[in-house]
Amino acid sequence: MAVTDHVDLDTFMAGVKKRNPGQTEFIQAVQEVAQDVYGFIDDKEEYHAAQILRRIAEPDRVVSFRVCWEDDNHNIRVQRGWRVQNNNAIGPYKGGIRFHPSVTESVLKFLAFEQTFKNSLTGLPMGGGKGGSNFNPRGKSDSEVMRFCQAFMTELYRHIGPDTDVPAGDIGVGGREIGYMFGQYKRITNRWEGVLTGKAIEFGGSQMRPEATGYGAVYFLQNMLKHKGEDVEGKTAVISGSGNVATHAAEKITQLGGKVLTLSDSGGFIHDPDGITQEKIDWIKHLKTVKRGRISEYCDEFSGASYHEGDRPWGVKCDLALPCATQNELNEDEAKTLVENGVQGVSEGANMPTTLEGVHVFHDAKIMYGPGKAANAGGVAVSGLEMSQNSERISWNQERLGDMLTELMEGIHDKCVEYGDDGTGHVDYVKGANIAGFKKVADAMLAFGVV
Ligand SMILES: NC(=O)C1=CN([C@@H]2O[C@H](COP(=O)(O)OP(=O)(O)OC[C@H]3O[C@@H](n4cnc5c(N)ncnc54)[C@H](O)[C@@H]3O)[C@@H](O)[C@H]2O)C=CC1
Ligand SMILES: O=C(O)CCC(=O)C(=O)O
Predict the structure, then answer these.
(1) Is 285 labeled as catalytic in the residue annotation?
(2) Residue ranges in the chain whose pLDDT is less than 70
(3) pLDDT tens for residues 322-347?
(4) How far apart are CA 372 and CA 351, in angstroms?
(5) How far is the CA of 202 from the centre of ligand 1 (A)?
(6) What is the distance between the alpha carbons of residues 117 and 433, in angstroms, rounded to a whole number?
(7) Looking at the DSSP assignment, which residues form a beta bridge with residue 238?
(8) What contacts 412, CB < 8 A, 6 or more positions away?
């Protein structure tokens, strides 16, 4: 058999598993995309002949490096850093940096793969990448975080650039860490350029970038509801996480007249039947970004709320669910519970928070289910706009960026409908996102020939 002959989905996936032993998250992400893309390319020989999906599922490169730094007690600490540059067919590699002890090559490969489709969906010229380290920022002093970020950038700088690869934040990497990394890049290269996004406003950051992922996930949900003649107002929402994405999602749900019942961190979740109001959200933002405390402390501050140690919030009855913490945080049983409790819509602020089995539950129940690569694309979209502003040496105002984010999310929703409408009025947003995201990247790759 010629290597360019059709292989079926099972054979394709067997190859992915063989080439990436033990990389369960990466294999899961490829499987989820491949099952839809296979249906789409079945009669499109050019994509098979050029082995497009196989090429997208093989990162352009995976850079791995040692990060050596000194803690406050003068101990030498050694961590591993990575940058996965998955695909730059439609623009420079773009995607966040994650600092968390659970980071592995598999996790970053899945994130860079997902990012390729997500960035394509935004319509902006950005390829897919992701990076990070198994460094755990929890309990570290500001000086330790600064030294780690500087050491990380001392190696990373040679692999990135404003037209090559533009990292940003993700779990464990927020404004503080971006500042330290940008400062080190500038020091080493003697260049001020838009090499990172998520910067503070004072040095080239964009209005609306901190809010963009969480707000965007709610705008996506709003678009799904509108498509069915519904609205957020008066609905209850269960949200996981309490970081950047979760708190901004909670804020937007509240602004639109919904009631947020839960937030969580890796220790457990809080349930506040009175609703997590803007005042309470502001308190949580301060807790997480300044005091760097645990969500359990919420119950000491606000009466009427309960803390559920070691649990996830999906058993709380709600109309809307927004997983905004991390991958595989919502499994098959939890998806069934949500459906049995009458959930109408799920919008993923996190990347791949629902297991494959959980996704099948939502699919079979035909609820509105917005997968992360579409629903949380608002963050990287505004990052793309930060790149544009840096290139033009200008800053747009908050109102303009807010309008652009709203329009971008509507555009992503409509692309999902275009490729995901099953003809009965139900939209398979997973299929829509996978096919629309794939097509643009695939067509660009076809134009380049064999590279
Ligand atoms: N920051 C951004 O612009 C974007 C983030 N995302 C995704 O959103 C998710 C959250 O990211 P951020 O809010 O930026 O990070 P963050 O660091 O601000 O917050 C992460 C949150 O997740 C919680 N968390 C981490 N591991 C957990 C675990 N094992 N179980 C329960 N909770 C856990 C943390 O306690 C924290 O509340 C991630 O999946 C990230 O990849 C997606 C698109 C863009
Ligand atoms: O803004 C960016 O470039 C990164 C966003 C990101 O990491 C994500 O979309 O998962």
Answers:
(1) no
(2) 1-5
(3) 999 999 999 999 999 999 999 999 99
(4) 5
(5) 25
(6) 8
(7) 262, 321
(8) 121, 122, 123, 220, 374, 377, 381, 433
Pair 441, 115: CB distance under 8 Å: no
Residue with tokens 């994130």: 111
Q: Which residues contact 45 (CB under 8 A, 6 or more apart)?
A: none
CATH superfamily of this structure's domain 61-193: Leucine Dehydrogenase, chain A, domain 1 (3.40.50.10860)
Domain locations along the chain: 61-193, 211-370
DSSP strand pairing (268-271 vs 306-309): antiparallel
> Catalytic one among 130, 199, 259, 288?
130
* pLDDT tens track for 10-37: 999 999 999 999 999 999 999 999 999 9
- Tally of residues, the chain: 451
Domains 61-193 and 211-370 share a fold: yes
Q: Which of 25, 88, 164, 170 to mutate to test the pocket of ligand 2 (most atoms within 8 A of CB)?
A: 170
Measuring CA to CA, which residue among 233, 266, 271 is closest to residue 252? 233
For the domain bounded by 211-370, which CATH number is listed?
Answer: 3.40.50.720
Ligand 2 centre from 213 Cα, in Å? 9
HEC string of the chain?
CCCCCCCCHHHHHHHHHHHCCCCHHHHHHHHHHHHHHHHHHCCCHHHHHCCHHHHHCCCCEEEEEEEEEECCCCCEEEEEEEEEEEECCCCCEEEEEEECCCCCHHHHHHHHHHHHHHHHHHCCCCEEEEEEECCCCCCCCHHHHHHHHHHHHHHHHHHCECCCEEEECECCECHHHHHHHHHHHHHHHCCCCCCCCCCCHHHCCCCCHHHHHHHHHHHHHHHHHHHCCCCCCCCEEEECCCCHHHHHHHHHHHHCCCEEEEEEECCEEEECCCCCCHHHHHHHHHHHHHHCCCHHHHHHHCCCCEEEECCCHHHCCCCEEECCCCCCCECHHHHHHHHHCCCCEEECCCCCCECHHHHHHHHHHCCEEECHHHHCCHHHHHHHHHHHHHHHCCCCCHHHHHHHHHHHHHHHHHHHHHHHECCCCCECHHHHHHHHHHHHHHHHHHHHCCC
What pLDDT score was predicted for residue 5?
Answer: 55
Gap between the terminal Cα atoms of the chain: 22
Both structure tokens of 182: 């940008």
Mean pLDDT of the chain: 97
Only one residue has tokens 């990448």, namely: 129
Binding residues for NAD(+): 213, 244
